[in-house]
Each structure stands twice: as C-alpha cells, then as structure tokens.
Amino acid sequence: MNLLDMALQVIIWAVEIVAVVLPLALAVAYTTYAERRIIGWMQVRQGCNRVGPWGLFQPLADGLKMFMKETIIPARSNKFLFVAAPVLSLMPAFLAYAVVPFGETSLFGHELHVMAIADLNVGILYVMAISSLAIYGILMAGWASNSKYALIGAIRATSQMISYEIAMGFSIVCVLILAGSLSLTDIVHAQAGGILHWYFIPLFPMFIVYFISGAAETNRSPFDLPEGEAELVAGFFVEYSGMWFAVFALAEYAAMILIALMTSILFMGGWNPPFEFLSFIPGTVWLLMKTSFFIFVFIWFRATFPRYRYDQLMRLGWKVFLPLAMGWVAVIGIFTYTPVLSDFIGFWQPWR
Questions:
Q1: Which of helix, strand or coil describes residue 180?
Q2: Are 48 and 33 in contact (CB under 8 A)?
Q3: Cα 28 from Cα 97, distance rounded (Å)
Q4: Does pLDDT of 157 surpass 60?
Q5: pLDDT tens, 250-297?
Q6: Which contacts of 186-191 are long-range, i.e. CB under 8 A and separated by 24 or more positions?
Q7: What are the boundaries of each domain within the chain?
Q8: Model pTM?
Q9: Does the structure show a pLDDT above 50 at 348?
Q10: Taking Cα atoms as reference points, which of 312, 171, 142 lies closest to residue 235?
Q11: Mean pLDDT, residues 66-91
C-alpha cells in the first residue's frame, strides 16, 4: 500500500467515524429531551417546553450551561484521576459503536456492504469487552473524589455490574448457540425471514434477562442505587460539576442507547422487517425504530418503578437471573445439538 492509498484509507476511516459519532452525540442529547417530555406526559405535566419551539433547543441550552459552569476540583482529591475518570467512562461507551452494524447498503447496485466502521467476526465479544471497561471510570471517580458518598456509590456500581454482567453474558451465549457466530452481522442474517425467525421467541426469558440486566448495567431506574439521592446525594459523581458532570451523563445515555441497539440486533432481528412485504422500508429505519422503542421502555421504567433496595438488587441478579440464564443455556444447547429432540419438536425448525 503506497502513501496515497494509506491517506485515502485514513480519510475513509475519519468519515466513517464522524458519520457514527455525530449522529450518536445528537441522539444522546435529544434522548435527554425525549426523556423529560415523556416523563412529563406520564406524570400529567408539560415537561421542558420553554427553549425553542416545543422545547427542542433545551438540550443545546443544557450543554451550553454545563460548558459555562465552573469546574470545581476538591482540594484533597487526586486531581489527575479525578479529571481522567469521566473521560475513561465516556470512551468505552463510544468505542463500542465501532463494530455495531446499522444496516446494509449496496455499492453501485451490486454487492451488499455492512454499514459499520469495522465488521468484526467477533463483534459481540468486542462489545462486551469494551463496554465492561466503563466501570473503571466510575470506580476511579469514586476513589479520586476523596468522599465517602462517592466511594460508596462507586463500590455499589462495581458490585452491581459484576452481578448482572454474568447473567447478561449467559443470555448472549444462547443467541450465539442459535446463530452459530460471534459476528453481529451474522446474528442479524440468522434472523432473516420475518418475525417468527427472531430470537426473542425461542429466547424470551433471555430477552427479558438481557434487557433488565442492561438497565442494571447502565445504572438506570429502578437500578440506580449507585446514584441514590436519598442516601448518597449523587453517588460516584457527587463532587463533579460543569462539563465533567455532563460527561458522566453523556456516558450513561450513550450506554443506554447501546443496550437498546444491541437488544434490537440480538433478539429483534436487527434491520430485518417483521414481514417480508415491508421490506421496501430501509433496514436502517427498522433498526432505529426498534432501538427507539427500547429507549422508550427505559424511560417508562424510570417513570413507573420505585428504586430497588440493595439486597433486592443483589438477590435478583444472583438468585433469579443467573440460575435462569444458566438453565436456559443448557436447554438451548440440548435442543439445538440433539437431532432427535430438534426434529421431534416442529416449532423449533425456524431457528435451526
């Protein structure tokens, strides 16, 4: 590869990164707007409606306000780690999108190309590995703040992620057994053919376990124990202000969108339409509609359910989700790799 080809490849990579990061940043900003409006509607009030028409400029006003606020660093904190923690929390949330396929497009009407920065054949493994690094930023923020409230919040977040990541991993193993691949693109292709081929039907318990575990992984209500206002003020980022506070919020919403996107890809057919006669609608539109629905469910959870007690949170993860996920892996493995059972149960054939 000569110098010109290398420069062209770098330009292509830069364009692809901007094409993913810029819409993602706008999606994160306007997810906060959607959350405030939807919760306002659910609580029979207006929500934000002052800045711009229907309040559409409210996320921009919030970002400007955070940018202009003073950043206060506690005198006895570890200043380097205090500043590095929000960045370390945000980077994995954005890096995970590098392998997420947003659909397929044809080049000059011929070969289909996956709309992803990098279409890895171990994409699901990359997403799990990168997204799990976000806990280091939270733990670092809690320790570096030199505050007992921040430290307790960070310890809660760490134990919560460990508790629910295992069940989430086992639920993904069930998908891998049926699809026979670690590639996110192959998983979507394995669900082609309509809604009866989507994995949420044979893996319905794992679909529920994955989505609820995702809410716990991202510290969303009703699993927001690391940020419990009643006992921890604001949890692990209690000492943060200004843009550093906003970075933690961006990381949380980016992770929430990632969980909604991965749920759509793993269990809901990705960019495949529910019925073949609807295939004229672009696949990316289908994927975004499914993702938007799951984001709405996240918001619905926040407006509906009270916060769990910590012992209830741990019991759900270790005594309910983990045994259920392990048992379902065994069931899926037996019925998938035992030909007699697989052939005997006729409804299993669409997912073979």
A1: coil
A2: yes
A3: 13
A4: yes
A5: 888 898 999 999 999 999 998 999 988 888 888 889 999 999 999 999
A6: 186/121, 187/124, 187/265, 187/266, 187/270, 188/101, 188/265, 188/269, 188/270, 188/271, 188/272, 191/269, 191/270, 191/272
A7: 1-68, 71-351
A8: 0.89
A9: no
A10: 142
A11: 83
